[in-house]
Write a structure and sequence with these properties.
The chain is α/β, with parallel strands linked by helices and 321 residues long. It folds into two domains: 1-139 and 281-321, Isopropylmalate Dehydrogenase, CATH 3.40.718.10; 149-268, Isopropylmalate Dehydrogenase, CATH 3.40.718. 36% of the residues lie in helices and 17% in strands. The chain has a twelve-stranded mixed β-sheet, sandwiched between helices. Strand 8 (194-198), helix 7 and strand 9 (231-236) form a beta-alpha-beta unit. The longest helix has 19 residues, at 170-188. It is globular and about 60 Å long. It starts with 6 loop residues before the first strand and ends with a helix. The relative contact order is 0.18.
């Protein structure tokens, strides 16, 4: 079996912490994960080894390999320049091109700042994930947050809690379950994934006393998929799903809304969680934090999540290989 191609890293917002933690991550992983950064060399203060394509990365570089991409503005820590917005967008698209062509094995995206992209380039997407789905021509993708002790998938994501019952449909739940199962098999090497499905309401509705979505929507979808061979547990009361003994019984938790999924994983491993986009035709991971303008350039940003995201991307690439 051949070794996968390097992981390509898109620079994200150059005024944030992404570029500094990319170098810290490279220092931690240089003997473990071959990688190449897409960025403007003018924005990078630490030493780099310039290459023109990922195939030139040998793993023996003395400093972080970099493929140069022209940006219009300078990079001032903590102060995004609207002139750089289009460069940030174009670097993401260039990273996708490298992965889909096979030149890179996976894409790890460093944090972007959505307002800066909208202000500087009229960015039309809510965030990274939606833009990647559009570039890939995919209608539906799934967000997974993962750490060594837990994987969670929210069925509905960045919407008000009041809108969740309407947004939560049988079709959306079925797609989320199918995409999650397929990704666990292909990218995580789990031949028969076990999925724990949370209820929407307290105590999973308690037989209809606290809500009926579990009876009318969630359970019927689960029954249909279970008949097709999927291993599912639930609907489960969310407040009993995340202690250590419960987590040992499943491979991923499917949650009905954002905080139901993200509060447990950020409590268990706040610094080391990884954002993984499931359902794309390529591998994409990302650190689970933002641009952190308040600490950018101060040398105090925690690289743990970026290191974990790169490791996970490389491991997933090996599984696909």
């Amino acid at each position: 079996m051949s070794t996968p191609a390097p992981v390509v890293v898109s620079c994200g917002e150059p005024a944030g912490v992404g570029l500094e933690i990319a170098h810290t991550a490279f220092d931690a992983l240089r003997a473990e994960v071959p990688m190449v950064l897409l960025a403007d060399r003018r924005h990078v203060t630490a030493p780099v080894t310039e290459v023109t394509c990922p195939s030139q990365v040998t793993g023996q570089e003395p400093s972080l390999p970099l493929i140069h991409h022209d940006f219009q503005g300078d990079a001032v820590a903590g102060h995004p320049d609207p002139r750089n917005a289009q460069g940030v967008i174009d670097v993401i698209a260039r990273g996708v091109d490298l992965v889909t062509s096979g030149a890179a094995s996976a894409l790890c995206t460093l944090p972007i700042h959505k307002k800066a992209l909208k202000d500087g380039a009229n960015f039309a997407y809510p965030g990274h994930t939606e833009y990647l789905a559009a570039l890939a021509g995919v209608d539906h993708v799934v967000m997974m947050l993962a750490c060594p002790d837990l994987r969670v998938v929210p069925v509905t994501i960045h919407i008000p809690v009041a809108d969740v019952p309407t947004a939560l449909t049988a079709d959306l739940l079925e797609q989320t379950l199918r995409i999650t199962e397929a990704a666990l098999i292909r990218d995580f090497g789990i031949p028969a994934p076990r999925l724990a499905v949370a209820g929407l309401n307290p105590h999973a509705g308690e037989g209809g006393a606290m809500g009926t979505e579990e009876i009318t929507l969630i359970a019927p979808v689960m029954e249909q998929l279970a008949q097709g061979g999927m291993t599912l547990f639930g609907p489960m009361s969310a407040d009993t799903m995340f202690h250590a003994q419960a987590r040992a019984g499943y491979d991923a938790a499917i949650c009905m809304y954002h905080d139901q999924a993200l509060i447990p994983i950020k409590t268990i491993d706040f610094a080391g969680g990884v954002n993984v986009t499931l359902g794309l035709p390529f591998i994409r991971t990302s650190p689970d934090h933002g641009t952190a303008f308040d600490i950018a350039g101060k040398g105090v940003a925690d690289p743990t999540s970026t290191i974990a995201a790169l490791r996970m991307a490389w491991d997933m690439a090996g599984k696909r290989q």
